[in-house]
Each structure stands twice: as structure tokens, then as C-alpha cells.
Amino acid sequence: MSSQRSTDNAVSADQQQLLVKALTSIANAVFITDEIGQIIWMNDAFSLLSGYSPEEVIGRTPAILQSGKQDQAFYANLWQTIFEGHVWQGEVVDQRKDGSLYTVDEVITPLFGKDGIITNFIAIQHDITARKLESDRNHYLAFHDVATGLSNRVFFMSVLQRAISHARRTQHMLAVLFMDLDGFKPVNDNFGHHMGDQLLAALAERLCAAVRKEDTVARLGGDEFAILLTDLLEMEVITALAGKLLNAASQPFVIRGQKITVSASIGIAIYPTDGENAQILLDHADHAMYDAKHRGGNNFQPYLAGTSQVH
Fold first, then answer.
1. 47 and 96 in one domain?
2. Could you tell me the residue range of the domain that residue 122 belongs to?
3. CATH number for the domain including 243?
4. Is the separation of the CB atoms in 178 and 286 below 8 Å?
5. pTM, full prediction
6. Partners of 128 in the β-ladder
């Protein structure tokens, strides 16, 4: 009987050594706390990920990692879940010792004694920072123009549709301005597309500075821009902003020491008189822009129903 007990103890000791070796060597960051949440053990991967040595962490709580990206309600829910004996899993943005941020997919599991009382918690963190950055970049590229940093057509149409719904409820006007540069092709022909892109980026900054903070500026493609003006009650506000945009476009640009001058044509479509959905408003603003070009460019024109513009 005593021999059997010794064998059982030996197996138990071997298993414990194996578990410690596994947790120490695992690629994921792991730390263990006592029953009140103070860290009592961490593996090398956690030290590498967080930048903290064991001496700096042991005896402290995981609050040392808080980045401010999650509010107190987030942490209250986390602690309530694990103190009630349940496993918690979620995405957390933590802060390294050097102040930089990293994102982990974390699983926290309560550990119970023979009496069913929680004795410890073990947290396993999988670093997903690179994946999140790539996902965020892909999301950004899906809705923004690379050359100018402005919203792209997809994002603009989404914002416009929501703005129409809001304008319908509040009985306000909104305006869509369709801008196309006059004389932009010679810029690309004479100076190259890279210079053209720099001019467009500089123009984008001017346009954003000219409109109000609640308005949206987007690049639709090429040298075409769209501007959404919201919460309007007077036509004078629209024409004043259109004039500011024309002035912003017509001021000389200095790109790589070269002075370049262009101008713009702007078409204006108003909700609800010129259309009640996003695509119709944008199309009508586009038509009005061609009317402005046919009138010599460097001017703005409102949409006139029944007119025929040749593209």
C-alpha cells in the first residue's frame, strides 16, 4: 500500500513538473494570480510581451497592464465573470512597460480547490497586435483614398444616406457638391502622376479647411471630389461654402518647387428638391458640375431639372 502511494506521488510530481515546463515554454503569454487577483507566477512569453520582469509584476494585479482603452465597466464585467467561477474570454488592449500598446485575445480561467472554492486564476494571452493592425489597415483602405487620406466613394455614399435619413427627420436641407478640377490633365502630362497626386493631397487639405467640421469631403476618383454639407437651412450658406471651395482650388500650388495653378467646377444638388436618395443627388450634382464646366469652369452651378449635359 505504501509502495502504491509512493508511485502515485511520483506520478503526481512528474505531472506537475510537466505542467510547469509546458506553461513556461508555451509561446502564449501566461500568468497566474491568487484568489484575489495578485499575480504569483508568469512565464517568459508574458515577460517578453509586456516588457515587465517577474520582480516588477509578482505581487501586483493585472491593472499594471491597463491601457485606458477599456472602461471600468469592461473590467467590472470581467472580474464579476471570473469571481462567479466562469471562464472569461475577450479581446484586450494592454500597455507595455515602455508605454506602447498591444492587443491580445485573452482567456481567464478560475481554478478551484477540492472544496470547490476558487484558489487561483490563470490567464492565457495570444498576441494579435499584428493581425489587428493589418485588419485596421484593410478597413481603412476599404473606406479611404490612399493618395489624399479622404473618404472614398463607398464611405461617402454611406455617410450621405445616413445624412438623408437625418435630414428627413429634422426637415433640414443638405447639399451635395460635386467638384472636378479644370486643367488637371496637363499637370499629369507635364509633371507626372506623382506630382499630380501631391497636388490632389494638397487640395484635399485646403478643402477640409474650407468646410465646417460637420461636413464631409471625399475623393471619388481621379480629380473628382464630393462634399456633403449637412444641417442647412439657408441657400446662402451653401453658395458661400461653394465660393470658398473654388477659391481654395484656384490658389497656386507649389509642388517640389514648381508653381502650379488649376481651378475647379462645382455642381450643387439639394435635398430634398433635387433628389431624395443618395445616388440621385450625386448624379444630379455631377450633371450640374458639367454645366459649370460648359460655362467656362471656375464657377459653381445648381442642378436644374430638365437640362441635358453632355459628359
1. yes
2. 2-134
3. 3.30.70.270
4. yes
5. 0.66
6. none
Residue of 127, 182, 215, 223 marked active site:
223
Torsional sign, CA 95, 96, 99, 101: negative
- Per the annotation, the verdict on 180 as an active-site residue is no
Torsion 47-50-53-54 (CA) sign: negative
- Amino acid (1-letter code) at residue 135: S
- The region, left, alpha or beta by phi > 0 then psi within -120 to 50, assigned to residue 127 is beta
Is 229 in contact with 241 (CB distance < 8 Å)?
yes
Could you tell me if 43 and 32 are in contact, meaning their C-beta atoms sit under 8 angstroms apart?
no
Residue 235 sits in the same domain as residue 280: yes
d(CA 78, CA 60): 18
CATH of the domain at 64: 3.30.450.20
Q: What is the pLDDT of residues 50-92, one digit of tens each?
A: 999 999 999 999 999 999 999 999 999 999 999 999 999 999 9
* Structure confidence at residue 7 as a pLDDT band (50, 70, 90): very low
Cβ atoms 288, 267 nearer than 8 A: yes
Kindly state the cell numbers that stand for 276: 431624395
Cα 106 from Cα 47, distance rounded (Å): 16
